[in-house]
Structure formats: structure tokens, C-alpha cells
Amino acid sequence: MLARASVAAGLLLGVLGTVPATASAATAAPELVAAGGSGEPSSGLLAVTARSDSPITAVTAHLFTSDGSGGSDGSGGLEEVATVDDFHLSSGSDTDGRWATTTPLRLAELDTYRLVVDLTDADGDTSTTQSTTGFAYWRTADLHDFDVTPEHPDHSHQQVSVSGRYTVTDPRTGLTAPAADSDVQLITSNGGSPVPVRTDTDGRFTYAYTHTRDGRGLVTPDLDLAPPAQQNTATAYVTPVRSATRVLLDTDELSTVEGEPVTVSGRAEVMGEDDWEPLAGATVRALWDSDSGAAVTRPVTDSEGRFSGELLMPRSGTAQVRVLGGTYLDASGEEPLRVNVARATSIGSFTVSVGKDSRLTAQGRLYTGESTPSESDNKVRIQYSADGATGWTTVTTLVPASADPEEGALFHGTFTAPAGQGHYRAEFEGSPNWQAAYSESVLVPVT
Fold first, then answer.
1. Which domain of life is it from (predicted)?
2. Of 15, 29, 40, 184, which has the fewest beta carbons less than 10 angstroms from its beta carbon?
């Protein structure tokens, strides 16, 4: 946890200026190095750093309002608000040191006062110099008991609790009191606009939220305190912890036909404190990606960790299924899912002609798109049925030739006809990668 200080804006700083000093020709006048508040702006204490060629014997500070409104004629004259001369040497030497007061000032108004310092040394030399920074006489807000728990939320403990207590010290009274019934602007680790939180009568505030930022984020409060004021606050960092996940498929292989999706389903789990548990509300991705295309589905798990999504693939292939990572989740390993897509086929231009000795000649074209079935699948069966409806039997098997996809693959063969009149058709049996196809039946009369 790192401390920081925020200072109210709009404060007028003094302008460096030196009033002509009285000095002998042989010695130099004391030099003001720095002057301003000592410690917190609410301390009411002053400090002066100076040096000279002989011991500095007197230090006097004169305070004026920042706008010069002390003039009796209203013209901005420099009538003093306070004169301070109870400085003592707090560090260094009397020729080069730091002088500070021990009695807090009790002034009527908060301000950044113009500060003019008179210095006198042992040689009798004097100087009068206006400080470049002035004297900040402000209230100070201090944060106590700041707590952010947990700083490392995980999947099972995503809520973060923030608490703290503010006090305010006023230099006009020297009293420190709770910042009661005040607004605190709380920046959470999720980022975005600050969240307003109200303190109680003891200056305490509490707030709880769910960490949703994907990664580390800061938490810091700011008390709404009218300027001029300084606020001493703090910052904590919240970093979520990711848990391991896994996906269990209902099956590792599915089949469908071209143009129809498959349903990818299973269960997602997350590693709990002791064992795997159902993972609710997580996104599961099933992705197929190849040179010939891509397909994806992203179902979200239910309260039991179950998921189901439709995946439409134009070709057979292997999809990879995994739980996607997130704020509290590591992505799971990929589970392969084989999807067999039976591509559409058709048979056209089928004819059967009668030759000599009851020999029949059958021919037609097999259409399988841009690809040719493998050797084991690339077969067309010529079938016979007496009534054209039942009892289809294979009388011969033909192998289509290779061809242009638009023309179809030609098959052609001659065989002996069964006795009597009957009906003939061509059948492509198909496979996991190809849909079955049938030609229209052809009636061949008795010869």
C-alpha cells in the first residue's frame, strides 16, 4: 500500500521579491534560501532556511493576506496579519541553517499567506525577502485504518470490501476531529467514475463491490474537503487470481449432413479449493478453422456448468473446444471434436438400354461438387426391383470416372438383366463424408 498526498487546487503562491537591504560595503546581507510551513499545513508552524557570512542573530516573519486585502483603504495594501519572531535553530549552523517555530499560529482565516522574512546577522547586516511559496495555513485530512480485503480476489471470492476513517485537523483551533457525515469519492479497482460513499459520525466509511476488471486495478479514496486543504490518503492494488478450468465433452465425434449444424455440448468445470466444481456463467468456444473455411459457436454455461451450442461446418473436420479465460479463469486446454459432414450428392442422366442376349447398358452421372469421393466410396450400384418399390437388389457396381465438377462423373457399364420386366435405379451409398443419392427409377420392358 503506497501513501500519497493530494493538494487542493487554486492556491495563490507568493512571488519572489527582495526589499532593499541595509548592509556595509565590506559584508553581505543574510540570504533567505526558503521559507514556509513546517510539517503539515495544519500545524501552524513556520520554518526559515537562511545563510550569511556571520551568525544570524534574528529571524522575523511577517504574514500578509494572499490578495493584499489588509489595506485600510481597500487598495490592496500590505497591513500585517501576524508577526512571528520565536524562531529557534532546529538544524545546521547559525551561518547556514534552518530556524523553526514551536508555537502554532492561530489565525482567523485559512489561506496561503504572503510571507516576508527579516534576517539580521552579527555584523548588523539585514535583509527583507518575500518567500516564493508563501505560508500554507490549511486544514489537513488524514486517512486511518484503510483496508482493502481481499487484495487478491479469486473465482470463489470476487467481492472486495473497502473501509477507512478520515479525520481533519484545523490550524485555526489546533483540533483534530472525525470527518463526520462527509462524502468520500472512492475509485475502485474496476476503474471508471469514482463512487460516492458517505462517512458516519466517526468519519468511517465502508463499501463493497465485485471486482470485474480483467487484471490489476487500484483502490483509493478522496475526502471531499473544501480548499485550501491537504489530504493524506492511500492507494491499494487489487489483483485477481485465476483458477484452472477444463471442459468435458458429451462425445468426441458427431455427424451431420451439409447445411445442417451439429450440437456441441458438455460440461465446464473450475478447480475449487479441493476439487473440480461446476463452472457457471463461463463462455465455451468451439472453433473449426481451415483453409476451406471457419465456424464457431460460443455457448455460455448454466448454473450446473452445462453448455450447448450449434456449430455449422461446411466440411468435415476437427473443432477445438475450450473454456475461454477471463478475470478469474485460465483458459482450459483444447478438447478435439471430430465433426463428419456428409456433403450433398446427386445422380442425373440415368438411362438403361437393352442390347443383345438380354444385356443391359446403364449409364449416368454422379455429382459430388468440387471434390471426388475416396476410392473406397467412389462407387455406384445398379439396382433392380420387379415392382419399382420393394426388393431392390444390386446387380452390378460401377466406378465413376473423374470429371469436371459441373459435368459430373460419368459411370457406364453392361450387365445381364434379370429375367422379366423390371425397374432399375442407380444408388450412391454415401459415407460419413458423403450423403447417399438415388437416381429416378427406369422401367425396362421384357426382351
1. Bacteria
2. 15
* pTM metric for this prediction: 0.71
Report the DSSP pairing between strands 335-342 and 253-257: parallel
How many whole angstroms separate alpha carbon 40 and alpha carbon 267?
Answer: 60
Instruction: Report the distance separating Cα 74 and Cα 213, nearest Å.
Output: 56
Percent of the chain residues past pLDDT 90, beyond the cut: 80
- The phi-psi region of residue 174 (left if phi > 0; otherwise alpha if psi is between -120 and 50; otherwise beta) is left
The confidence score (pLDDT) of residue 70 equals 43
Beta carbons of 236 and 220 less than 8 angstroms apart: yes
Rounded CA-CA distance 189/426 in Å is 70
- Asked if 226 and 213 count as a contact pair (C-beta separation under 8 A), the reply is no
Q: How confident is the model over 41-94, as pLDDT tens digits?
A: 999 999 999 999 999 999 999 999 987 554 333 334 567 899 999 999 999 999
Cell digits of residue 414: 453392361
What string of H, E and C letters represents the secondary structure of the chain?
A: CEEEEEECCCCCCCCCEEECCCCCCCCCCCEEEEEEECCCCCCCCEEEEEECCCCEEEEEEEEECCCCCCCCCCCCCCCCCEEECCCEEEEECCCEEEEECCCCCCCCCCEEEEEEEEEEECCCCEEEEECCCCEEECEEEEEEEEEEECCCCECCECEEEEEEEEEEEECCCCEEEECCCCEEEEECCCCCCCEEEECCCCCEEEEEEECCCCCCEEEEEEECCCCCEEEEEEEEEECCCCECEEEEECCCEEEEECCCCEEEEEEEEEECCCCEEECCCCEEEEEEEECCEEEEECCECCCCCEEEEEECCCCCEEEEEEECCCCCECCCCCEEEEEEEEECCEEEEEEEEECHHHEEEEEEEEECCCCCCCCCCCCEEEEEECCCCCCCEEEEEECCCCCCCCCCEEEEEEEECCCCCEEEEEEECCECCECCEECCCEEECCC
Sheet holding 359-367, edge to edge: 346-354, 359-367, 409-416
Residue 23 is predicted with a pLDDT of 43
Tell me which residue of 319, 331, 269, 326 sits closest to 295, measured CA to CA.
Answer: 319
Q: Give me the domains of the chain, ranges plus CATH numbers.
A: 7-137 (2.60.40), 139-238 (2.60.40.10), 245-342 (2.60.40.10), 346-444 (2.60.40.2060)
